[in-house]
Amino acid sequence: MFNKVVIAGVGLIGGSLGLALTRRNLAKEIVGVDPDRDNLNKALALGVVHRADSLAEALPGADLFILAAPIGVTLGILEMAIPYLTPGTIITDVGSVKGRLIERAEQMLPQDSYFVGGHPMAGLEVTGVTGAREDLFDGATYVFTPTANTEISAINSLKDFAHALGSKVLELEPAEHDRAVALISHLPHLLAATLVNTVAADDDCGGLLKLAGGGFRDATRIAASNSNMWRDILLTNREMVLQSVREFRFQLEEMEQAIINFNREDLVSGLIRAREVRESLPENRKYVSRIK
Amino acid sequence: MFNKVVIAGVGLIGGSLGLALTRRNLAKEIVGVDPDRDNLNKALALGVVHRADSLAEALPGADLFILAAPIGVTLGILEMAIPYLTPGTIITDVGSVKGRLIERAEQMLPQDSYFVGGHPMAGLEVTGVTGAREDLFDGATYVFTPTANTEISAINSLKDFAHALGSKVLELEPAEHDRAVALISHLPHLLAATLVNTVAADDDCGGLLKLAGGGFRDATRIAASNSNMWRDILLTNREMVLQSVREFRFQLEEMEQAIINFNREDLVSGLIRAREVRESLPENRKYVSRIK
C-alpha cells in the first residue's frame, strides 16, 4: 500500500500504527523518528519500525508521514519537517484536538503538500511503545477532518489505510470533531479525575477506598491515564472542554434539585434517560482495557 | 451453620445470598418470601430457595431473617414481620443506606430481637433473581453497622456468615457508612447518569455516541443500573449525597479554574493526584461486570 512510511513519535499510538502497518503488509518500509533514543531502540526491538532515522534522512521520498508525537510538540515537529518534505507525501497527525492544529498546519505547509488531520479514537491507560498493539485500531473509529484545502487523493488514501487497520472511518469538520471529543472523551476524563480527587480530599480516603466496588473502579478507570498528555489535551481543547463542563454542571444541578426537592419523578426520569441512552450504545469492540 | 434462613425479597442480592447459603452448606432450609409469585417460582426453579411461604408461616423458628427487598419497602416488611418473630432470630438487611433504617428498626423491634444492619457491597448492573450468582459476595466487602444496642452474639454470627461467603468484613457506624457510600458509590452513580445526560442533551447525541470509546463506556457503565432502585438510594441517603455533590463541585471548580487560567501546574497536579490515588486501589476482585 505504501512504500515508505515515516512515523514521528513512536509511543503507544505511533508504535501501534507501525505494528499494524508491518503485520498487515501495508508498508514496505517504516522509519521511526523520535528524540528518545531508548524509545527508538525499544521500537526496533519490538519490530514496530524497520529503522530509526532523523527527519532530514527519513522524509525524502516518503509516501506517508504520520505525526504521532504528543499534542504539545506536533506543530514544532511539522515545522522542522517542512524543508525535507517531498511533494506528494501525505501528512497526517493523530492528535485528540484538531481545530487549531489544522489551521496552523495549513498556514505553515507549502501548497503542494497533502495534509489531512486524523484522530484514531483508540487508546489505553498505558502509554509508550511497550504498550503498542497491532489490533489497537481494529473496530475503533478513525476520524479524519478534511477541509476545503484537502487533496481528495490524500484523504482517499488515508481512508483506505484506516479501513485496512480495521477501523470505521468518520469524516468531521475540525470544530465539529473538537466539540464532540470534548463531550465524549475529554469531559469524562476530567470528571473521572475530579471524582477521584473528591474521594482523595476526604480525611478518611484510605477507608473509603476499601469500600470501592466495581462501580467506582469503572467510573474512575480513565483517571489513571497519563497526566501530562491529558493536561495538554484539556488545555489545547480549552474552549470546548469548558463549554462541556458548563453543560455538565447544568445537568448536575437538575439532578441535585430533584434530590433537594425530593422530586421522585424528575429524579427517576433523569436516571431512566441516562440508562436508556447508555443501553443504546452498540456492542463494545474487542479492545479490552489492560488496567485493573 | 443455620437451620432455617428466611429471605424476604428474592432479587439479585437475596437470590445470590440464597444460592451461596445452599451451595456452601450454610443453611439446612432456606425459605423465600416475595410478593411476586413469578419471581418466587423462578427462585425455586433456580434452587435459590428451598420453599416459598408467607412471613407468618416462614418466620417462626428461623435462625436468620434477611431483609433483601428494595430499600423503600424494607421497613414495611420488618413491621409486618414483627408479630411472627421468634426471640433469638437474628435479623439483618442488605440496604445501601443504614442510618435512618437502623434507627427506625431499633425503635420498632422488641427488646429481645437481634437486629444488625448489613450491606454486602456487591452488585451487578442486572437485577432480579435470574442474575443471582453464588459467588457474588466472594472477595467483596460486607459491611455491618452495629450500634450500642446490638447483641454481640448476633454480630458474631453474621461475621462468620459473611466470611463463609468469602467476603471481607468491615464494621462501621451507620452514619459513617452512609457518608462513605455517598462518596464511593452514590456520587459515582449520579455522575455517570449526569454525564450520559449531558451527551444526551446534545443536538447530535447519536453522532457523539458513535465516537464513544472505552473511556466513555467505562465511565458510564453504572448509568445502566436499575433506575427505581437508584432513585430510592439517592433519596434515602439524601443529605450525604448532596454533601458529596457539593464536595465534587468544589473539586470540579478547581480543575475548571486551572483550565480557564491556563494554569498548567495546577491542572497537572490535579491529574497526577487522581492518577496516583486511582492506581493505589488494590487489585480488582474476581467479580466481572456483565454489561457491555
TrEMBL record, chains A, B:
Coiled coil: none annotated. GO terms for biological process: tyrosine biosynthetic process. Keywords: Oxidoreductase. The keyword Isomerase does not apply. InterPro entries: 6-PGluconate_DH-like_C_sf, NAD(P)-bd_dom_sf, PDH_C, PDH_N, Preph/Arog_dehydrog, Prephen_DH. It holds the Pfam family PDH_N. Residues 3-289 form the Prephenate/arogenate dehydrogenase domain. Pathway: Amino-acid biosynthesis. GO terms for molecular function: NAD+ binding; prephenate dehydrogenase (NAD+) activity; prephenate dehydrogenase (NADP+) activity. The keyword Protein biosynthesis does not apply. Belongs to the prephenate/arogenate dehydrogenase family. This is Prephenate dehydrogenase. It comes from Desulforamulus aquiferis. The lineage of its organism: Bacteria, Bacillati, Bacillota, Clostridia, Eubacteriales.
